[in-house]
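Weekly structure sync, notes
Attendees: PL (lead), two postdocs, one rotation student
Agenda item 3: pending single-chain targets
PL asked that the sequence for the first pending target be pasted directly into the notes so everyone works from the same version. It is reproduced below exactly as submitted, 690 residues in total.
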Amino acid sequence: MTASKSLRDLQKDALFAMFSLNAADTSTDSNTTSSPSSSLATNGASTAAATALAITDPVWKVLIYDRFAQDVISPIVKVNDLREMGVTVHMPLYSDRLPIPDVPAIYFMQPTAENIRRMGEDLSKRLYESYYINFSSTIPRPLLEDLASTTIQAGASAEIAQVFDQYLDYVCLDHNLFSFQMEDSYRLLNDPSSSESHIEKLLDRIVGSLFSVLVTMSAVPVIRAQRGNAAEVVATKLEAKLRDHLLNSRANLFSTDAGAVNRSIARPVLIILDRNLDLNTMLSHTWTYATLVHDIFDMKLNRVTIPDPEAPAGAAAAASAKRKTFDIDVNDFFWKRHSANPFPQVAEDVDVEINKYKADVDQVTRSCGVSSLEDVDPNEYDSGAKGLTTAINKLPELTERKRLLDMHMSIATGLLKTIQERHLDQFFAMEESITRQTKATISEALRDTSKSPADKIRLFSIYYLSVDTISKDDLAEYERLLVEAGCSVAAIGYLKQVRAISRMTASANVAAAAAAPTTAATDLLYRFSTIGSKLTDHLQSTGVGNHFENLVSGVKNLLPVRKDCPVTRVVDTMMENRDEAGGGGGNNAANNPGDVVGGDYLYLDPRLPRGSSGKPAKGRTAFGEAVVFVVGGGNYLEAQNLWEYTQRTSLPRKKITYGTTELLTPNAFMAQLETLGGGGAGASMGRVPL
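Predicted structure, written out during the meeting:
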């Protein structure tokens, strides 16, 4: 178990090893996770030559990738990283490519029939000198045979240097955050019209990708999972796959974990949960920096596209014509420090960072005797002058800091404009105390013509899933108001049946709401106008802000109340082994608000003999590390809530890696709910055949 490194770092190591032609000693980590596809014979001399080639001088290479592999690479690897690894050209698999006959080519792609056919076309055209084929996951035997046949037909057997299974079929979006990029996963798993073969295929993909995550971590975990839904199926399939690999594989991909059989503190726990445990978190209006960016700007693969911050409010056409795109680096100093902070605190910290930047710029310009950084020419100054050398050496760092502050200023400006236009402060304030809302306050929000239909349906859905009772007459009145507001009520049709089957999400906010202070948001919009004008002025001046005197005052009274999401409460119980040997009684959150962990959870250990007890031993040591995986979609709010939990637990500090089938914005998740409700099939929690 490589406890000191994040999943992102481990995946980056694996990618860099692949770029070095899978030479083990070129990896930055001693743990290598790729495996040669043994069913395809390769020339031993070619493999030895490839290793020697990678170990000596850097080799100029071409990188070819399919769409999924591009998604894996792009959040982690920069162009400069590729160049340092000798990759001078990188192109999509399905692009038109000219031959480059004197260089080796690294292929990174999913093992699909379409990709094998495309690979065969490249081999026939003799595009490259040699081919290093890397599959994101294990290639099935029939496809491997197709590749061998295609290679022979092309007469290119001698050019195939390597064929590797990389076990990298997941996307890392933060240090301990991963997604499988499986679109519409919640809908597919809960729609009765989905065929069993389609569901089975999706579940097998989830199992294979989870196996890849564990291979990268070199960890065989204890597995805990909800019963009676997709989480149970995934858990049992994954345990069988792990057990089979440990018993039958010639090359053990988990060899570095071999000594951790009976030491729970050294092995992680994999907690697999179903999305239906908590729907509210997926629909909530949020107030932290990263969650707002994801919700408002639909951040994908860490790329953010925002309207021109200088466009006037409400000028939608003009704003859409001019847009700015930014790539968020998870190691960006500002993002790293503030992505999980409430927006008011982020605004305050922007002021601090700007003042720091200005002080450093002033020091450099005074040392060089100029008025601005643009006037500093390093070639004009005596390199022997210690003070000048120190000042000039700061130039690259200051330039990069200015770029990052400009970016975050633009993003903050866009957020504030959207908050103003959509009254997101009011929605957030209401949802923080959702069980205190009355028919009058909800109805007033639904009637407010200044609020968007998308935000109204999210608010009402959370209210509907949180309160104990709603009369038929009241529900009919709410639906009428939603329709008049331009909302689709298809999702409500689905949620009615979810609520009738099991009130899984009723406890999401009960405990916290009882202690939550009443939040006044009536005058917040007035103060936001001051903030917005300040930010715009800053962008129009030097590109970096001058003063934020009025910034924090406008948002101080909307700091989120600390509370644990249902998933976090389950994780806490599982990591601390407090579920009384497995618990019992099914998913009873609806019957016992405030207790979402009272259900019956599977306990599986792939390292124990088959048929061993399926319950954790009493008095078992708490787990120090967990991988939390949600089947059916997740979001940044849930991930941040888990990470915040690790920061406030007693030492030794816990480590949590969060993953899901897909990261969804609230609107994207609502679209899946609407599809389920609009199709006439109704809800079917437990649709997955067990």
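Discussion points:
- The first helix runs from residue 7 to 19.
- Residues 467 and 593 are 10 Å apart (CA to CA).
Action: rotation student to compare against the earlier draft before next sync.
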